[in-house]
Amino acid sequence: MLSLKFSSAAAQGLSTPPYIAAMVLMFLEGLISDRLRLRYPMLYFNALLTITGLCCLVWAKQPGVQYMGAVFATAGPSANLPTVMVFQANNIRGTWKRAFSSASMIALGGMGGITGSLVFRSRDAPKYLPGIYCCMTANGVILLVTTAMVIHFVLRNRAANQGRLVIENLPYFRYTI
């Protein structure tokens, strides 16, 4: 954001900490989600962190709060990448189905770069509101889709535990939520 008013040298130096924060968040969430065997809380947290960061970045008046928003808006989506990949890998059985799903997710994720170049237009500077709204909407979709998947997985696991269903033709398989 141009409203941060940092010199070019300071901006270069300040571009690294958000990615360090993202790396730390990824590792912590990986450890926590593996211990708890839960993925969805991290997806929720990261989407809400991103939305919060975007709001701070655009609507806060203090440069420090805006910079914190940049950290959150970088860490949230960066940490969601490995979480989403593990979430799908845990819940899709079969080598070919898993490979196809992973490739599809990576391809669709790559389309985000194309979308970004279309919604973050120079004429919308300095706040880039259409792009910000698009990112917020995408994170809202993450929240909705995650909720739908968790409900679906919980219901299927419950049916499997009651002996009414065999998931993926594997009697002891249960979805990881």
Automatic annotation (TrEMBL):
Its main location: membrane. It comes from the Eukaryota. Keywords: Membrane, Transmembrane, Transmembrane helix, Transport. It is a multi-pass membrane protein. Coiled coil: none annotated. It is found in: Membrane. The keyword Membrane applies. InterPro entries: MFS_trans_sf. The chain crosses the membrane at residues 6-28, 40-60, 66-87, 99-118, 130-155. PANTHER family: MAJOR FACILITATOR SUPERFAMILY (MFS) PROFILE DOMAIN-CONTAINING PROTEIN (PTHR43791:SF3), PERMEASE-RELATED (PTHR43791). This is Major facilitator superfamily (MFS) profile domain-containing protein. It comes from Sporothrix eucalyptigena. The lineage of its organism: Eukaryota, Fungi, Dikarya, Ascomycota, Pezizomycotina.
